[in-house]
């Protein structure tokens, strides 16, 4: 018996790249849960779970007989269509200009940094972006500050600020 529901239909109305990535992740989880290995059945489920606009786009692809029967190839072609090659300069600019609650900020930084090719420096750059964004002197005074410690200190400071505002209200 399958526990996982089928993914919601792929809809690309707001952010095509992000919507496609999330749908693809849910689709793969669903296919794993079903235990399917037949390309024909998986392709049918894939085409059934995309919206009408995406199906129309799929229908414009000139696929060979071999490609049209390979669901992995179809996903690759859809990915190439909906997720263009990232402009590293633009992605880095967006990475360094975020601002909202700490949880949202860190989540967005982690997502944005995935396309920045930071490599082993990813956690350090995220930590530095948090420090720059919060302008918290306490973070600068902390020796050997890693990302987890930075997040913990920043979360505690954010919570203290919220509680202080609530007490004053």
TrEMBL record:
PANTHER family the record matches: ANK_REP_REGION DOMAIN-CONTAINING PROTEIN-RELATED, RETROTRANSPOSON GAG DOMAIN-CONTAINING PROTEIN
UniProt protein name: Uncharacterized protein
